[in-house]
# Entry
Amino acid sequence: MKNQLTIFFSIVFIMISTIGCENSKSGDMSDKQKQKILFLHHSTGKTIWQGGNSFFTKVKGKLGLEGAVEKWFHRYNKENDVFYVIRDREFPAKEPYGWKNYPFDYYNIWVKHGEEDYFMEEPTLKTLTPEYDLVIFKHCFPASKIVFDGTPGVDSERKMVENYKMQYQALKQELLKYPDTKFLLWTPPALTEQGTTPEAAKAVTDFSNWVVNEWDQPGDNIFIWDFRQLETEGGLYLLPQNAVGEKDPHPSHAFAKSVYPYFCQRIVDVMEGKGDARSVTGE
# Structure
């Protein structure tokens, strides 16, 4: 135990001592055109943002130090003489709205209450779009827990594909109202084979394909990062090596470390007007 504490505090000291160096790398960019990017996420997104979920990366996250995505952009800015500023935010927050970021919730906050500046303390697009050039949003893996009973309706919170499609169509019309801001949406994260049924996995995979191939259209301000394709490699389930555990569909450390650069590249493609021409996985 004593040795573990010694290692822990040594790591903390080293990381804190590098803060000044990391900040100084991005401190000479004021003469360039700043472009601001916001990533809205919960736990799955946080793992990709940090570039993994090892002990080391978790400590860095708790200390508020830069994640892998931020570091990637610092390097990219320096090498390409640009000034992309990316930040993340938990959305929606646990209080007062609740830890829910499914299709209904984006529809509820951004469409149903889109004329307000905030709904239950969460910013609507009316508030976000004047500040950010790109807004990235996603759902957490329970979005893949598809059910098949119930009456479909755009105002329903039930995780039915029919509801998702209606909510996405409404979201699309809302996003198009803000042509000066670009939007990047992740496809729904997958579940492990042990954590779902073949019927539900097939249904959400079909929905994801619909999002990529039909809902998303070239020439507008909406783009896709096909996270699900990377997780499943084209199958129905999150591959075992890409998950924390058989029934824990959070991204594994190795998987997050391998794909976060694809996420960064996809962002750059969108920001630089290549979003319709380049791979939706960022590979």
In short: Residues 32-271 form a domain with the Rossmann fold fold (CATH 3.40.50.1110).
